[in-house]
Amino acid sequence: MIVSEEQLFLNQHLSTKEEVLAFIANKAAELGITTSSAQVERDLWAREKEYATAVQQLIAIPHAKTEAISEAKLLFIRLTEPIDWESKEGFKAQAIFAILVPASEASQQHLKILSSVAVNLLEEAFQEQILTINTERELMDYLKDNLEGELI
């Protein structure tokens, strides 16, 4: 299972992209996804330096292909307020899908997860729901109904 309820974090008070990427790395360590939060954070930043991962207004999909994890995982963070994601387009981010994949299976697994999330983000109803659902349980149920089955 790539995403579970314990990997969903609603109403987080983070105010910068730096805080968000550190939060992702630290939660990955707390959840046993990685033994090196520092490496995960470095790999997230390496991808951000190539191109900011804000894909549209209010949505970002930071991702890392890293040796620091052994199994692909998806974390979701929703912030209490949108923050500047430092993208060329000037997008802010409030809903963040963080994709972490092992470097060994990066291309296939990474693209499958990214594609499933991106396809759903084309739907306004999906965007609205991820920004307004009240509890992690409700969000997990919604993701089960909308993301490809093998991701849940």
Automatic annotation (TrEMBL):
Keywords: Phosphoprotein, Phosphotransferase system, Sugar transport, Transferase, Transport. Coiled coil: none annotated. The keyword Metal-binding does not apply. GO terms for biological process: phosphoenolpyruvate-dependent sugar phosphotransferase system. The keyword Cytoplasm does not apply. InterPro entries: PTrfase/Anion_transptr, PTS_EIIA_type-2_dom, PTS_IIA_fruc, PTS_SugarTrans_NitroReg. This is PTS sugar transporter subunit IIA.
